[in-house]
Write a structure and sequence with these properties.
By secondary structure, the protein is mainly alpha-helical. It has one domain. Helices cover 76% and strands 0% of the residues.
């Protein structure tokens, strides 16, 4: 791997270990719903990042970054969705009923929520506009091909880190094995998701 690719990989690693909506959502989901739901959400997030990577290769990420309307639409859509997830976590008593202790949301629901959460995160689009282009080597092959290659590296690193978060958080699930504790944890996580939504709104403001 060239020095440029190593530098890009290190940059991606630092960005991904910085706490953000994806990390917090995956930790909360895995702690309350277990490893299967967490891994499904990781797959959804990976697909969302890949979609932005393809969009970047086509120049669409720059359009989002340069359009105040599109950026703000994604931004507030993401805030609203995080708040909805917080409400769902607070109100979903069915997931903590005695007969549903081993249940919870299905993998498809977790996948869909991970995908939507990431697609509504304008920071993902901005990464492909503000960071990735610095590592494109003009005159050394197709810009689109280089963008796709760097996107694949970014998605791979992000997915590996997300899987580690899921595995670590899910290990704590046995600590909250009773319905009462699950209800308490879900409501604490609901408050945290709401706080993340507020932080997200503030941190993505221009």
């Amino acid at each position: 791997m060239s020095t440029s690719l190593l530098a890009f990989a290190l940059t991606c690693f630092v960005i991904e270990i910085t706490p953000g909506p994806n990390m917090a959502y995956l930790a909360a989901l895995s702690l309350s719903q277990g490893v299967r739901a967490g891994i499904a959400a990781v797959a959804g997030i990976a697909l969302g990042l890949s979609v932005y990577g393809v969009a970047a290769s086509l120049g669409l990420s720059a359009v989002i970054d340069n359009s105040a309307f599109l950026y703000e639409t994604l931004r507030w859509g993401g805030v609203a969705y995080l708040l909805w997830l917080a409400w769902d976590a607070w109100a979903a008593e069915r997931d903590v009923a005695p007969e549903a202790v081993e249940g919870g949301i299905g993998p498809w629901t977790a996948f869909r929520r991970g995908l939507i959460t990431n697609l509504l995160n304008p920071k993902a689009a901005v990464f492909y506009v503000a960071v990735l282009p610095d590592f494109i080597q003009i005159g050394k092959g197709s810009v689109a091909a280089q963008t796709l290659m760097l996107s694949a590296i970014y998605v791979g690193i992000a997915t590996a880190i997300h899987l580690i978060i899921v595995l670590l958080a899910s290990q704590l699930q046995s600590v909250i094995a009773t319905p009462g504790l699950r209800r308490t944890v879900r409501r604490v996580l609901a408050v945290l998701l709401a706080a993340i939504a507020v932080w997200f709104a503030l941190s993505t403001s221009r």
